[in-house]
């Protein structure tokens, strides 16, 4: 490969990400990412794992999420600023990089605001596939913001959900979500209260944005036999479920060292029992054992390996050169010892032009 080839790195912009999704279809994208996620969860022990590196402020958090499988390295930059909504800005934005461990050279740059929505939904679907009661057809979606439609479509595609009951403290968010899901093949029901939303639902997903300890679900709202995806709590001081719900649940997590700091189980003692999701998938630990009485809780905070899976999927999708631009991102002189000379020769080229 020539030096010029090494200098050029595929970049997936927001526009190209949208075009890719529209050509393939949102549900197909989620289903394919879920497959990549399952592959990586099944080889979970091979990965470097560390809690994300977070910089907290009064208004939000900025995080770096790195991991490697020993062959490739990936990281995501992501923020979480709930106050942005009132200024007409996204609560979450993100971008990511996939690189070769062998050379350290980047292999892919990508927007990850949209890609994170796809992978978060695919992760919820993966957990639900293993933990929900058999034959579940109805989900309650509490919090109808930017993630809600992706969550509903993921559970429809991967888990066979046919009905979604929506609630948000902002009725405009519920209207938006219902409008976007029209024609999806799901029965969509707009609800005035969270109690109404969870009525008859075998699966409850909470995804709210406020950076605080909230009680989105109180203990008396949750009956036996349900599965909960608690995905809104993702930083210290931010939870959605009353601790008594957590006490009554069998809790499944991505990476305990991170979830005990950021998830619903930050409310619990350090020795509160949990099961890692990858252990259920490989058969090392049981998941749901009783459809009638057991409450299962996927305490999902998002982990770097999931972003790695999504970046792997995206890299494969743009390997044909479509849906990406080639960016001149790596200085790659003919003589690797002569970076200064490379700069000087560019001045000569500019003068000649």
UniProtKB/TrEMBL annotation:
Q: Which InterPro entries match?
A: NAD(P)-bd_dom_sf, ODC_Mu_crystall, ODC_N
SUPFAM superfamilies according to UniProt: NAD(P)-binding Rossmann-fold domains
Entry's Gene Ontology molecular function annotations: ornithine cyclodeaminase activity
Keyword Manganese applies = no
Q: Which PANTHER family match?
A: KETIMINE REDUCTASE MU-CRYSTALLIN
Report the protein name in the record. Answer: Ornithine cyclodeaminase
What is this enzyme's EC? 4.3.1.12
Query: Mind listing the UniProt keywords for this protein, alphabetically?
Result: Lyase
Residue ranges of the TM segments = none
